[in-house]
Amino acid sequence: MPTMRKAAKVTCEVYQGISARALAALAAMGVDWAQVQARRMVTLGERMPLPFLPPATRLEEDPAEACEIYLPAEHARAAVLMLARELRLFTAGRGAVYAEEVELFGPPDSDPCGAGLAEPDASEQPGERLSRFSLINCVVQRGHGNRIARSVLETGANVPSIYFGVGTGVRDRLGLLRIAIPADKEVVSVLVDAQDQHATLEALVDAGRLDQPGRGFVAAYPVPCGVANPMTFRGRQRHGATMEQVIAALDDLKSGTDWRRRSWTSDGTARTDRGWLKHLVNVALNCNEGSSDRLAAIVMAAGAGGATISKAKLFSPGGKDLVASPARAIIDFGFDPDRVDALIQALREGSAFDRESACFVEIKPLSTAFTYVAA
C-alpha cells in the first residue's frame, strides 16, 4: 500500500560541462537513482557596440542540467555539503545545490527515497557556508522567460535557470481568450536570500504582468540550506576581486547574509493589495511520461486551479535497474492542503500508483504565490 513519509529533495543545478562530474559524485555517494532535467542558465554579459560608446549589457545563455535526488531528511545538509565540495560550488560561477523538506506518497516498491549516505558529515569547514533561501518559480508563456530572467538579474539576485513545460487547466476556463494564450510555458527558477523573497516576487509580478488573465503564476518555497550561484555578470574585471568575491568575504565577516537585506516597500513587506495566495501547498506528481495527460485530468477534476507539466529523465548513477520508465513527467501545481487526502483518493481510484503509471506524489510547503484570480 502507498504510504506517506518525510524526506529531503536535493537539487544540484550545474552547467552542462560539469554535469558528468555531478553524476559521478552521486554515484560515489551511493545514490540509487536520480532524475535529470535540461535547463539553461541566464547571466548578463558585457557587449561593446562601438569602441567610442559605453559598454552595454545583454543576456547570455548556457546549457545546464538539474539533478534531483531524494534522501532521508536527516541527510539533507550532508548531501548538500558533499556535492558543493566535490563540484566546487562554493566558488561562484559553477552552479548551485540546495535541499527542500518534502513529504512523499507512493508504493514502497517504487520509493524514490534512497537509503541515505554511508558516512554523512554535515560539519562546515572554513570557507564553506550553507545559507537559507527562498526558491522562486515563475511560470510564463514560452518566449517570455528571458524577460523574467532579466528582471531577476536586475534585482541583484542569483543566477536564474529556465526550463520548458506545458500548462493545463487555466486555459480551459478562459473561454475565447484561450485562443490567444499558448499552452507552451517556460519556468524561471531562482534562489534568492530569504529576506528578499517579497521584493523579488513583487518584481516578477510586475515584469510578467501576472495580474492579467493567463499571464502566468509565481510561487516561493522555503529552502532550509543551500549554496547559490551569484555569478550574474560576465565582463572585464576592473578590480583586484570580483563583486561575488567581495560579497562572499562580507558574508563571512557578518556571519550570514542578513546584511544584504533590501526592500522595495517602506517596511520590507509585500503589497497587501496584490491578493497573495498564502494557504497552499505545492504538489508534484512524478509519473511515467505516457500517463501525464490522464493524471493531469484527475488533478484538475480534484480541484487544482492549473498545473504545469515538465519532463525529466530517470537514471541510476550506480547502474542499477530502473523501477520505472526513464521518461518521466512532473505535474506541478498549488493545492488546498485540506483537500490533499481527497486528491490522493482520486489518484488511487484512477490507478495512478500502478506499474503502468509508476506515480509518486511529492508535497512541500508553499510560502506565497500569485496569479490572476477573477473577481
What's this entry about, in short?
The chain is of the alpha+beta class and 375 residues long.
Main attributes of the structure:
36% strand; 14-stranded mixed β-sheet; globular; 375 residues; alpha+beta; 21% helix; single chain
β-strand amount:
35-45%
N→C terminal distance: 42 Å
**Outline:** globular
**Uncertain spans:** 263-268
Average of pLDDT: 86
Describe what you observe in this structure.
It is a single chain. The protein has 375 residues and is α+β, with helices and mostly antiparallel strands. The protein has one domain (1-44, 57-233, 243-375). 21% of the residues lie in helices and 36% in strands. The chain has 7 helices and 14 strands. A hairpin with an 8-residue loop joins strand 2 (34-47) and strand 3. Helix 3 (145-154) runs antiparallel to helix 4. The N and C termini lie far apart (42 Å). Mean pLDDT is 86; it is low at 263-268.
Which helices and strands appear, and what pairs or packs with what?
Elements (H helix, E strand, L loop, with lengths): L2 E13 H13 L5 E14 L8 E16 L4 H11 L8 E12 L24 E11 L3 H10 L6 E8 L15 E10 L3 H12 L7 E12 L5 E2 L8 H12 L25 E9 L3 H10 L5 E9 L11 E9 L4 H10 L10 E7 L1 E4 L4
Helix pairs in contact: 3-4
